[in-house]
Design goal:
0% strand, 179 residues, mainly alpha, Ferritin
Length: 179
Amino acid sequence: MARVTEKLAVTLCGAFVLSAFGVASAQEVALATDSPDAKFLTDAARGDVAEIKLGQLAQQKGESEGIREFGKMLEEDHSKAGKKTSELAKDLNVVPPAQPSAEQMAKYAELERLSGAEFDHAFAAEMVKGHRDEIAKYEKQAQSGNSKVAKLAQDTLPTLKHHLEVAQGLESGGDARHD
């Protein structure tokens, strides 16, 4: 009888330990989604989706060939980046958003109402501002955080910097180049 009770006690202790680890794992996952790395991945994924949509809009509404080419560049480059970001997010148990933020959608709607040279100018100006902001976030992330997330940020920075250069050229009346 003592052996049965001892076995039962060991089994119950093992079950308790396992369930405690299960709870800790769930808590760790919940904490992970609130981490700076998770926030960066979420924002990056949202940004890629927004840039793809804006790139498509530029291809449709751009008056100049440069704006339309830049739109195509944005769509292609942010599709590639979005795929990498989403894959890493999933690996780290972060659910990447499928839609831009409300603020990004409002900016899209604002640009969508414009046409011709007015669209081109506003689009280029928004791309300069947006890419400056994104570069600052990516540079900060590249310096800290999870090594995989920092590496993603480092790997993406050259593309974002190129987009900024092209947008600045377009804003000052230049043309898009995809080097």
